[in-house]
Each structure stands twice: as C-alpha cells, then as structure tokens.
Amino acid sequence: MSETNPNAEAPPIHSLCDLDTIVAQLRASRAGSQQSRRAKGVREMPSREALENILENLFAVLFPAHFGQPDLSDEGIDYFVGHILDVTLRQLHVQIQRELQFEGNDETTRSGNQTKARTITREFAISLPRVRALLEKDIHAAYEGDPAAKTIEEVRFCYPGITAITHHRLAHELYRLGMTLLARIIAELAHSKTGIDIHPGASIGESFFIDHGTGVVIGETALIGNRVRIYQAVTLGAKRFPIEDDGALVKGTLRHPIVEDDVVIYAGATILGRVTIGRGSTIGGNVWLTRDVPPGTNVTQAVAHAEASINPKVAPLA
After folding, report:
1. Alpha-carbon span 202 to 169, nearest angstrom
2. CA 273, 262, 230, 207: dihedral to nearest 10 degrees?
3. What CATH number is given to the structural domain containing 94?
4. Which of 60, 137, 152, 235 would bridge 270 by S-S if both were Cys, CB 3.0 to 4.6 A apart?
C-alpha cells in the first residue's frame, strides 16, 4: 500500500484555481461595506484581542487576591489595583474611541468623540465598586444554592455561571453607557468560554445564580429580579418579532420575559415573549411558557399540559 509523502511539493496554486479572479470577486463583495466605513472615517474596529486582555485585567482589579497576585500585602494590593486599573482604563479608552468613530467623520465630531470617550471611561470606572459588590452577592448565591460547592473559592474560580455573570455585569455597564458593540463583544467572549449567552442589554438583579449553565440564553430586553436561580438550557427569549412596512425587523421592542424576585427556573425551560413570571414561582424542567405566571406558582409539564387541554390558548406547548 502506498503512503502519501508529507515532504512532497504541493502543486502551484495557480494550477488549481484562478487567484486573480477570486481576489477580484472578494474585492467586489466587500466594496459596499468598505465604502460605508470609509465614509464614516472608520479606520479600525474595536479589537477582540484587546478586550480579552482588558477583561483579564478587570478580573484582577475586581478580585486581586484571586486573579491578580495572591502574595500581596494590603497596601500592595491597593497599589497593584491602582496600577492595573490605570493601564486597563487607558486600553479601554482606545477601544471606546474606536467604537465612537462610527458616529461621524468630521473634525468637530472627532473632537467631540475624544471628550465623550473620556466621559464614558470615567463613568465605567466609577461603576466598578458597585459591580464588584453585585458579583460578591452572585458568588455567595451560587455557594449557598449549590450543595456541591465546598468553598467560596471553588465557586469563584470554577463556576461558568460566575464567569458569565462577571462578563455580563461589565458588559452591561458599557451597554448602558452606549457602547453596544464593545458590550456585545464581551458577551460573546463569555459565550465562547461558557456556553452561556446573555445579551448585554438584559437587566439582572442581585444574587443571581446560573447552575451548570451550558445552553442558557437570555435576551436583550429580559428583566430579572433578585435572588433568581436558573439551570442549564433555559431560554428567556422572544415569541415574535414585529416587522416594519418595508419588511425590516422593528428594533428595541420589549420582547423578552420579566422574571420577578425569588424565581427558580429548572433545566430546559423555555419562556418566550414579554410575559411576567411572578415572585417566588418555580418553573419546572422542559416547560414551554408563553403566558404570565402568578406569584408563588409551581409550573410543571403536567400542569401546563392540563391547562392546555382545558384551554389551548392559555399555555401553548412545544
């Protein structure tokens, strides 16, 4: 049996395909987007790699004893945090300026963007103590809500839900400040790491816990209260998408669920539309919901099927 020689010389590429034609076709394909970017004076998009580095530094700023240098003294920690924060905010300022380039290309706008970038960077920095306080509550909620958790440090280091919510709380601050592109990149970095997809626009209260996490999807306009617990493969999504007269989707409508305080949503549940899950309710595994749930309600597949048999319009099921 003959074997392929790994050292054999590859045939010339021009003998396999017409590179000049392919290059010309690719140029024609991207011409529209290039012209649009040039018209707006855009030279560089925000950098995914830079944002990954910024996030790594922000983790160290928020939890220096865990993601920074664990052997620092109390005074040393403050110096470390100050230094890393200074470097990181400078890097973030550059990325914010890049996103703002999409808003115009005249000299007045460029000057205004520089001022706006400084303001956004400052407001983001001011939010960090509040974000850290929220994350501490999220971490303790995970520890208290999972009997398998042995220590707080295990939760902080190992739980994908904590990684995802840390990304989200940082991304949400940027989203709130108008940096929707940077926020979305940060959300997708978390998605690729954890399998948890939280849109940065979603509003999430304190002591939030995602257990296991893989496959969780939370939409842009979802509103989640305090002390909510969600398990893997839960979807808080939209039921339908309004369409303009020209066929384009209407943007920014309130189309995702409201989940009130102290709700538990078990694995595989799908909740669609601008419905309200009342305080203290429990949504069982694999339940499909497109209606409001009163406070203190336990919804299981059996209950949902029973209601649907009485009135199919009450609880559409998959």
Report:
1. 10
2. 120
3. 1.10.3130.10
4. 235
Number of structural domains found in the chain: 2
Do 192 and 48 share a domain, yes or no? yes
pLDDT by position in tens, the chain (length 318): 555 666 667 666 666 678 888 889 888 888 866 555 555 555 688 999 999 999 999 999 999 988 887 777 777 899 999 999 999 999 999 999 999 987 655 555 666 788 999 999 999 999 999 999 999 999 999 999 999 999 999 999 999 999 999 999 999 999 999 999 999 999 999 999 999 999 999 999 999 999 999 999 999 999 999 999 999 999 999 998 778 878 788 888 999 999 999 999 999 999 999 999 999 999 999 999 999 999 999 999 876 655 655 454 444 433
Place of tokens 């590859």: 10
Whole-angstrom CA distances from 26 to 16, 21, 31, 32, 73 are 18, 9, 9, 11, 56
In a domain, 28, yes or no: no
- Yes or no: say if 61 and 125 are a contact pair by the CB < 8 Å rule: no
